[in-house]
Amino acid sequence: xxxxxxxxxxxxxxxxxILAGCQQAPQQKPEATDSANPVAQESFIPYEKYTLDxxxxxxLHKDDSDPLVHVDVTYHVGSAREDVxxxxxxxxxxxxxxxxSEHVADEQHFKVIxxxxxxxxxxxxxxxTNYYQTVPANQLEKVLWLESDRMGFLLPAVTQEKFENQxxxxxxxxxxxxxNQPYGLRFEKTGEALYPEGHPYSWSTIGYVEDLDRVSVAxxxxxxxxxxxxxxxxxxxxxxxxxAQTKQWIQKYFGSIPAGPEVSEPEPQxxxxxxxxxxxxxxxxxxxxxxxxxxxxxxxxxxxAPLDVLSDILGGGKTSLFYKNLVKSGVAVQAGVSHPCRELxxxxxxxxxxxxxxxxxxxxxxxxITDTLKEFEERGVMPDDLVRTKASIEASTVFxxxxxxxxxxxxxxxxxxxxxxxxVAEDLRRYRAVxxxxxxxxxxxxxxxQSAVVLSVVPEGxxxxxxxxxxxxxxxxxxxxxxxxxxxxxxxxxxxxxxRSSMPEAGPVPVVKVPEYWETTIAPGITALGITSDETxxxxxxxxxxxxxxxxxxxxxGTAFLTxxxxxxxxxxxxxxxxxxxxxxxxSSVSFSAAGxxxxxxxSSLTKNIDATLALLDEKLFSPAFLAEDxxxxxxxxxxxxxxxxxxxxxxxxxxxxxxxxxxxxxVSYPDEGTxxxxxxxxxxxxxxxxxxxxxxxxASIVTVSDLSQDSITRxxxxxxxxxxxxxxxxxxxxxxxxxxxxLFLVDKPGAVQSVVxxxxxxxxxxxTGEYFRARLMNFPLGGAFNSRINLNLREDKGYTYGxxxxxxxxxxxxxxxxxxxxxAANTAEGIEEIFNEINHYREDGMTEQELTFxxxxxxxxxxxxxxxxxxxxxxxxxxxxxxxPDDYRTTQVEILRNIDTQTLxxxxxxxxxxxxxxxxxxxxxxTVMPQxxxxxxxxxxxxxxxx
Length: 948
Hints:
By secondary structure, the protein is an alpha+beta fold. Helix content is 40%, strand content 17%. The protein has 4 domains: 2-25 and 269-465, 2-Layer Sandwich (Cytochrome Bc1 Complex, Chain A, domain 1), CATH 3.30.830; 48-254, CATH 3.30.830.10; 518-722, CATH 3.30.830.10; 743-868 and 885-942, CATH 3.30.830.10.
């Protein structure tokens, strides 16, 4: 499971811009004891576990390194517990559990946690649902009151109105994440073809719309009563806790909740296929996609670990055979292999996006994959394959334990599925024990010559590109007749002597210290900021080169982006694969990227391997090979990716937004990777020239967080002393467009079931303590939180969207105000009207005193969460560095928060929220939305951001 996290991350990084998905696979490991005493010292994550009389399992993990706590309540119920014809219930209840309970008002859970300076969310998959929040340590009792109230007292607050509202919200979520996205139906169709009808994995977690329409509020209540009792839950608390006091609170708030019906552990339900099933899905895509899915085992089966290692060898990044044979050869734009495992069954997935410039035929791609598998069989498992595996296990384990939330979530998941919270040592053992013989054995058993589901996703009307003609007919859904339930599902009777009507008071506000940091100059004059923290033996380091895409030559937009990509390729002494292999054996990463104003170099390493890792950075930074074949492949991949992005509504909306804000004559109006036209103009010589001129120490800066001292880091970075380069100029901007009225820019997306909407206006650039900071405070109740006016109106009151927000976005030299949302197509104009109504009302009347208190608390109390992990510490340092902020700027912000009043904030609203010059961008089905938009009385201009 640990390796799987690393491997999935590699796949996700490669495909994130094209394939959208949300999946988690928590790591796992064994526990020393199940007694009420802390586990033995050899436990990887120290914890205490006990069980209340009602069956609630409690896990406590004390970590006082930061003044915060993470609370996770995991219920062993996901979509696999649903009945045929009633799909989506578990996910539906994830939404309902935030809609208030008997003693907690509608939407109060979000408000309480946000105002406490915390963050919260929930997630559902096939096998479990969890609800989690991270808050300052003094807010723990309040969180336990909230979580216990929705566990024991939810049903009295479930109303038909809330049910209908959240049903629309779930439909909007499905529309946004599945139906309106390229490849969005990929997982659903694979599940339907791979698993027999009625198998718990044969339907997706979000469910079918017809099922959501079919059920009643009584059905939903019955589902809750069946599965959400304390005996089917794990309460995990990690962080800066007083263990004795925490136990008292747990007993006080959870102890009286009666157990629900008995819950048995589900048995694995592996599947086999009698023949390969070919399925073709026509979709609004540019890049044909091939996914081959073999059924394998189930989570923690003895063969799971060898199959994970096999997937990494075949398709885990640049060291893999898929990279060599499919990506580097140019047959595929992207390709990878993964082995996602779940409680009942696992799947071995081979996936590739065809490169139309070479061949859009998925049959050709299928043959290339078959040849690759044959090559693996002949080649076998090489020694470095297993070395990389063991290194990645160690590194991912250490990095995965940098946050209290990560450790608590891991403990909760392991306990839910295995009854053993700390399985870290066991997972390390089982992956390290994998041999080359094990890998070859599982390949022959589960992959070689076995039947699979072969899914071809092809552009609409081009079924001839499929790997083979479809030979599988999806069975019609056989929905059993269900007995209509009377709306009288009774809530459990709870006898207790506490007053739940009063929310507990928070304890004393924890003292949060801004991390102490050091500053030095690394020869040849590079400013470096660092924090020494001994919480984990890791190094997080970044080098920033200012300029980024702003340095692109005119007509060759995308040069900075392509140059950074080339810096990740071959060097003079290492091939691409050899470099990736050396880094993987260390469990390290070195990556270059260019986005916005900066080119960034990121380094991640275990402390013990930092010098070896930096030696590889030395090679990558100063000895790039700039091979023509690498350039041609990367350029083609970027072009094909951009053509695919033109099928994605959210991408089109952002393109239109930037053009409306900044006009056609500014570099910031176009994506980091440039345009299809500009990319064609860029040559390898342009990349070499960009590197020579702009990969210079003149505008470089360094940030690092590690357990090493300043002197140690400085010595390790001494190789930079030979870095040479001249200073350079970052040019200003051309004139921006001016608007003297509202305009609506419509980008036609035929068939879109939702409209992506932006309302925008140029505004303030970033400052930490000036008007921009105060404008952000002003915006918070309007659209900066879940409980903001815009979101509650469009999502909770009207049911037009899955979510809506507003924000002031400011950089070093530019800024703007925006409202963004995805609206149901039929309610596009109504949603836009409501956005303007909320802004105008807020501008005229200002925020209330209650909203001021809410905002003030949310901003000031959140400090406890701001510096926990090396990543958050590094962000703090980069903020200081990028904007040249004084050491005490956070203290100044707190003073502003304490003293600012509603009159000051309303004056800012009147100044910056003038709607008469706000511009509206809509990406939607013109035929559906145009009649609505014409009725708004705003001039409509058709706009195209799709390049031929």
